[in-house]
Design goal:
Layout (H helix, E strand, L loop, with lengths): L2 E5 L2 H10 L3 E5 L15 H16 L3 H16 L6 E7 L2 H15 L7 E6 L8 H6 L5 E2 L2 H15 L4 H7 L9 H9 L11 H11 L5 H10 L8 H12 L6 E2 L7 H5 L1 H9 L3 E2 L1 H7 L5 H5 L2 E4 L2 E4 L5 E3 L4 E3 L4
Parallel strand pairs: 1-2, 1-3, 3-4
Antiparallel strand pairs: 4-5, 6-7, 8-9, 10-11
Helix pairs in contact: 2-3, 4-6, 4-8, 7-8, 9-10
Length: 328
């Protein structure tokens, strides 16, 4: 193999592998906008934390996930054996966070081959082989300034507060044209002032309130409300389930709390996707700003290295582009 191609997942990776027999294709399989991504003493520490989260979220063996992450990182660490490295990523939040992690890892290599990057404004997975292959003409060299900038932003994402992340979201990223929008979108997953809803929470409740009640259609509607869709179906179902099985629930109609076993069973999966949901009185109150989601049902999520917990989480006002510190 003379080329290492790093991309966002198995679908695009499989197409690229068929197109490029000269290359080793490495899918970067981590959902970094979910779960803890904190500062750690070394890469092994972060791998352990991510393996535990991914194993729980996707019902896999933690040992198997950890082994996959170790192989992934070892491939990047051994990148000097390749003639060049190509990074194929999309414009959305999920891909841009993966790109930061890859660039940070590459920045630490004492010797590395030339690095080229393709950052696409379209999702790569659905593209037919001919269209995907044609995008190779858009590969551009990655310089040292870009690697250093990415490493700083990756470190900011992993800090225990989102202060530096919010600062970087408003500073143009060298060689990373979609990064500012992606980091702002990440911050929008913090609770808003007033109603305590993340942007995804609000899009879910708003769409239900507007009559989109089938779960499958609701997922499509929420994705359509994004400038750059990034949520996978499992991520969406988990967030929907969190709102439905809170106390008090903000919506009703799901047949059961979501878990990986739902997907494994055809009947349960069909029942879940075709279920009709509706807002509760509590959900209507939160959507209207009469109640605060955090005060009403609590919250326990992560944004990178920031643990978002009740009763006084970090909040973000997207209208005013303002980060709000927790109250004492």
């Amino acid at each position: 193999m003379t080329v290492l191609i790093v991309t966002n997942g198995d679908v695009a990776g499989s197409t690229l592998a068929a197109l490029r027999p000269d290359a080793e294709v490495l899918p970067w399989q981590d959902v970094l906008h979910e779960g803890p991504v904190p500062e750690t003493d070394d890469a092994a520490g972060l791998r352990g934390i991510r393996a535990a989260h991914l194993a729980d979220a996707f019902r896999r063996s933690e040992a198997d996930v950890l082994a996959d992450l170790e192989r992934r990182d070892a491939t990047v660490a051994g990148a000097s054996r390749f003639e060049r490295i190509e990074l194929w990523f999309e414009h959305d939040l999920a891909d841009q966070l993966q790109l930061l992690q890859v660039l940070d890892a590459l920045s630490e290599l004492p010797a590395r081959p030339p690095v080229l990057s393709l950052q696409a404004r379209v999702h790569l997975g659905p593209l037919p082989a001919e269209r995907l292959g044609a995008l190779s003409a858009r590969l551009r060299p990655v310089d040292e300034e870009t690697l250093e900038d990415a490493a700083r932003r990756w470190a900011a994402f992993r800090e225990p507060t989102p202060v530096d992340l919010a600062d970087y979201a408003e500073v143009e990223a060298h060689g990373l044209p979609f990064m500012g929008d992606a980091l702002r979108r990440a911050l929008e997953e913090l609770p808003r002032p007033g109603d305590g809803l993340s942007r995804t929470d609000r899009q879910i409740l708003y769409s239900i309130g507007r009559g989109v009640d089938r779960v499958g259609m609701l997922f499509a509607r929420v994705l359509a409300m994004e400038e750059a869709a990034f949520l996978g179906d499992w991520s969406f179902f988990r967030q929907l389930s969190e709102l439905a099985f809170a106390r008090p629930p903000l919506l009703v109609g799901l047949p059961e709390p979501f878990g990986a076993s739902v997907i494994d069973d055809d009947a349960r999966r069909k029942a879940y996707v075709t279920a009709r949901v509706s807002l509760t009185e509590a959900g209507r109150d939160v959507l209207a700003g009469r109640s605060d989601r955090v005060a009403l049902i609590g919250i326990d999520r992560w944004l990178g290295g920031t643990h978002i917990t009740a009763p006084t989480p970090w909040r973000y006002d997207a209208d005013e582009v303002r980060l709000i510190e927790p109250e004492d």
